[in-house]
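Weekly puzzle thread! Below is a chain. First person to post its structure in token form gets bragging rights.
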Amino acid sequence: MNVNEVVPLFAVSDMKKSLAFYVDGLGFEMRDKWEDDGIVRWCRLQIGNAGLMLQQFRTEGHDSRQLSENKGEGVSLYFNGDDVVAFYREVSERGIDATEPQVGNRNWVTSINDPDGYSLCFQSPTDVPEETKLSDSE
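Winning reply:
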């Protein structure tokens, strides 16, 4: 078997809210979707070469699931890029609450929690000293 990609699936509680966050806020592009009675139940999103899937499960009937309120607890995804500082500024202007970039493990890192508590970390390489905050370097 030749594995060439992993695409996480996040269970979400409110697809409209999640799509606004990922597409409008973070700049992901919707590549595919499944609609049921005019409601997007599943979709594949892409940003650069990274993808993820979202699904809002029914709460009653066929294929329903009862999910915890803390769906994202303990889940972190790291997205590697080339300019996290520019990304941080861009998404902050769109109203996304991202942490101030700080250097860790030779990378600028900013973290964002999605509406269901999944932790999204965006990072890019740097030679700036460890633990430097963006506000300290400007």
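Puzzle host: Confirmed. Bonus trivia for everyone else. The first helix runs from residue 15 to 25.
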